[in-house]
Amino acid sequence: MFCPNCGTENKEPAAFCLNCGMSLEFLTSAVAMETESPKARRLLRRVVIILGLGFLCILLGMAGLWAYRRFTSPGERIAYLKKEESGKVGLWVINAEGTNPVQIFRDAEEIQFPYNPYRHISTPFSPDNRALLFTAEQDSKYRLYRASVSGSDLVALTNPGAAASGVFSPDGKQLLIVTQSEQGGKRDLFLADRSGRSQVELAVDADNVWAWFSRDSKRLLIWELDAGKTDLFSLRIADKSRTTLVEQATDASASFSNSGEPLLLWVKDRDNPNGALYLTDAEGETRERILEAADQISATFLPGDKRIAVSLNRAGRHSFGLLSADGSFLAEVVAGAQNLLYQPSRDGRRVLVAVQQSGKWDVYTVDANGRILAQLASNLDDWPDYRLSPDGRWVSFKEKADGKLRRYLVTIDGSQQVTLFEGADSTWNLAFSPDGARIVYDVEREGEITIYVADSDGSNRKKLVEGGYYPAWSN
Fold it and tell me: What is the pLDDT, as a whole number, of residue 468?
């Protein structure tokens, strides 16, 4: 390299000129930069590419998370029905904030949502909120349909018939399907995968038939009625092996404990002419009688399986009580009622008991030991149509007075009451969000129907849909 001061050639890398002594470090650095710049540029390109790919992955991940939350997050979606201009009914799904409405089905004469026995509500949503299950009537015939919440993949699971219904298993991986033929009215029962396409026949040509899953989705109880006689079966889903629990009984019913075993089995047959309630294992090999002498018994394990709620019908008079898990008597809460209904809270600490006496309804909160904690409603003319929030804090009621409807909320201890609306011509449903923090409900006045969302205490009300009715919140 040459000295810029005197022009003398110097060997690289020289710090000073050999002739005039001028510093040449800046020239040495420039030469090094020129030599290394191709490598630096290649390295820089690699870094930019890697960073770009990383940023793209982050964007894709965020988009996937948004899509997942939009279509599957608990409480984010609401299904509802809406009258079309033609007078037919359509099924819609909308974001709980009132955005992104999607029409799932149209041109139905009627649409019905399946009843979820684990949540005590009617809802079309699968447990993971990705699919919908519903029955639609067209041309006076019913079919069961499955669709994604985005409106795609609409599939008819049954042929047109006199009736069709279904329910998802608690894990959402299976479906129970019941169909009724137009000729003869016989019913068939099928077990299918979550798509509904792979169907296994469980019962054929029954006068009536239904089944329900254990909470772990590993077993089924199948109830079948033919020629006035009842059969009950326990079925292990993995290998489809079936055990007969009751055969040719006058009447019978059964329910799983929350852990799957033991079962509660009520039967009225030759050996139990007055009716008896048993504790039994899922195979029916061990059986312990815990109650008897009742025309009908409805029994349910409370969550946690430490208590059993029991409603008995003796000669048309109803009573309600609680038993210990081993069937020993704990407390009688109500006796001699004209009619009676009950619903446990999800944590098993409270039970709502609705009692009809002399044509009027009263509703009470009872703890797991059978003590009445509060009276939530009294002297209602009609069935109270109550809804218990998932967190167990609020109960909603529907009341009729002077031909108009009122819906209100009461805290589970009866200390607070909030009126949502009054003076309505009709109201079809109220549903709580899965965490119990919000509600959705419909109101009809003078032919105008509106769906509202609000906080669970009725505050922060917002109009969600005009013309919509029967809203159902996702899981």
Answer: 96
Phi-psi region of 423 (alpha: psi -120 to 50; beta: other; left: phi over 0): left
Residue 191 to residue 213: CA distance in whole angstroms:
11
Distance CA 247, CA 257 (A): 22
Which residues are CB-neighbours of 200 under 8 A, at least 6 positions away?
A: 190, 191, 192, 240
Quickly state the pLDDT bin for 30 (edges 50, 70, 90).
very low
Kindly give, in sequence order, each residue whose CB lies less than 8 Å from that of residue 162, ignoring residues fewer than 6 positions away.
Answer: 141, 142, 180, 181, 182, 185
Question: CB-based contacts of 313: which residues, under 8 Å, 6+ apart?
Answer: 294, 295, 296, 297
Those residues with Cβ within 8 angstroms of residue 49's Cβ, 6 or more apart along the chain or in another chain? none
Q: Which residues of 360-372 are buried (b: 16+ CB within 10 A; e: fewer)?
A: ebbbbbbebebee
In the predicted model, what is the mean pLDDT of residues 304-333?
A: 92
pLDDT of residue 197: 82
Q: What is the DSSP letter of 55?
A: H
User: Do residues 132 and 148 make contact, with C-beta atoms less than 8 angstroms apart?
Assistant: yes
**78-104+394-475 CATH, one of 1.10.20.10, 2.120.10.30, 3.40.50.300, 2.40.10.10:** 2.120.10.30
pLDDT at 7: 60
The confidence band for 72, taking pLDDT boundaries of 50, 70 and 90, is very low
For 352, 399, 410, the CA distances from 418, given in Å and listed in that order, are 18, 13, 6
Query: Please, are residues 81 and 469 in contact by the beta-carbon 8 Å criterion?
Result: yes
- Assign 274 to helix, strand or coil: coil
| Mean pLDDT across the chain | 88
Q: What amino acid is encoded at 259 in this protein?
A: S
Instruction: Break the chain into its structural domains and give their ranges.
Output: 78-104+394-475, 296-384
CB atoms within 10 A of CB 91: 24
Query: What average pLDDT does the segment 42-46 reach?
Result: 67
Q: How many CA atoms lie within 13 A of 291 on its CB side?
A: 29
Per-residue pLDDT at 260 exceeds 70 = yes
Chain centroid offset of residue 363 CA: 25
pTM score > 0.70 for this model?
yes
65 phi and psi, to 5 degrees? -65, -40
pLDDT per position as a tens digit, 80-115: 999 999 999 999 999 999 999 999 999 999 999 999
Closest among 135, 217, 123 to 174, alpha carbons compared: 217
Going by C-alpha positions, the residue among 253, 369, 363 that lies closest to residue 313 is 253
pLDDT of residue 67 exceeding 70, the answer is no
